[in-house]
Amino acid sequence: MDEKPQTTINFNAPIYNNGGTITGDVYNNGKPAPQPKALSEALDTEEAHSLLDIARQKGWVDDNLQPRVSQPKAAILASVIADELGLSPRWTAFEELWAIDDLATKLTKAQDCHYYSSFLKEVEEAMP
Fold first, then answer.
1. What are phi and psi of 21, to 5 degrees?
2. In the chain, helix, strand, coil percent, each to 5?
3. What's the pLDDT tens digit per position in 67-124?
């Protein structure tokens, strides 16, 4: 009986794809992982901290408040939190925090793809 070779997989090793890395669940297109950023004044409130903590507990953002979901889902998350906080302009704080451009367009695309509706519902139900 022939013995098959053993393969060891290190699940903690970084994964590379076309020169980029995967951080959390999001492929970052070859850019280095974002460094923790200070919260903008709009997000540095008790209510915002509470909502961002819910997002962290749900696994939607990491301990540095960087998204662990796709960019369309991050746009949904930002939209719900911005609505809860009454932010105006609604996208600026999240685009700066997450270094994601044009969250408004990403939200529109997510809304056009109905398979994101379950995530929207999940986020809306998690936020007080």
1. -125, 160
2. 45, 10, 45
3. 999 999 999 999 999 999 999 999 999 999 999 999 999 999 998 888 899 999 999 9
